[in-house]
Design goal:
- With about 375 residues, the chain is an alpha+beta fold.
- It has three domains: about 140 residues, no CATH class; about 70 residues, Ribosomal Protein S8, Chain: A, domain 1, CATH 3.30.1370; about 100 residues, no CATH class.
- The protein is about 20% helix and about 35% strand.
- The strands form eight sheets. Strands 3-4-5-10-7-6 form a six-stranded antiparallel barrel.
- The longest helix is centred in the first third of the chain and has 14 residues.
- It is flat, with a radius of gyration of 33 Å.
Amino acid sequence: MHRLFSSILVALVALAPAAARSERVRDLGAFQGVRANQLTGYGVVVGLAGSGDDNLEYLTQAMKGASGRLGLQLPPGVAPGLKNAAAVLITAELPAFAKPGQPIDVTVSAIGKAKSLRGGALIMAPLYGADGQIYAMAQGNLAVGGLGISARDGSQLTVNIPTVGRIDSGATVERAVSTGFDSAPQLHWNLFASDFLTAARVRDAVNRRYPGIATVLDGVSLAFTLPASANDRASMMAAIEMIDVSPAESAAKVIVNSRTGTVVINAAVRLSPAAISHGKLTIKIDEKPRVSQPNAFSGGQTTVTPSSQISVDEGGNHVALFKPGASLSSLVNALNKLGVSPSDLVAILEALKQAGALRAEMVVI
């Protein structure tokens, strides 16, 4: 375990670039409004082989509504058995610039007691956006990768998840989302991660290509003044996204996953002068009681005399010394010599942070 952890840290050091890297603008951020939107809906899957929800109240109401749209009115008080139907939640992602008539994929998930959606077909159901408006209509046959089998004696066999299915091109877009791409005098571009230096470098790189069109609004957003023509605007946006920029170095961080014991240290971590001593004190106590047996016919009694042996073993008596400005490689080499485990590494990093010797933000997840 120690060797594996040390190998991972050494590999991270070896992969760290020595010089400033260049990235495309499209890899650092995205234009505001040019994004996907989430859609959700409620529907009914029919045609199941007895693996549906049966008499759930909300499924019965949904089936009455569906049959009513087809002109079939169920008598009052009648609760049909619906073992071949299941209530489902439908989710989809509406891509940017999607137009009415275009197909999108949908995912269908059971929300009731249905055991499997295999072989089912989704009845036409509307998909709503966050504003409560209908943006797509979904319908089609499900493709289910899971399988569930049960026997009369109660034994069951389940492969993957049989209560979730997918319909490729299962929904048709009915309404487009306005992005302001063809009407706004300026378009905002947002960094994926806030950084004033990176924002300034993007501004400078864009202005070198198109003088005076880019302005920094804050640590995340820039404003681009683009031509009014949609054709020219699209060409300029495509060119801007391909401009190379050297982003600022990431802030020094140490990420600790307390559940798995994973520790990740980025290359920006630096150490002030410090010395680390790591060792384990092991105390072993062996109990070997002695039996005292009296001589024959002496009238004495057999007694047990306690006998304890205590041994102490103190290992790991190494001390690691860090010079001013020590880097990640120095930290890894020192910890390898100490032979620390991930849990011990967390304790050492916390102690360095408390001592003011670790120049990094510690994030525990």
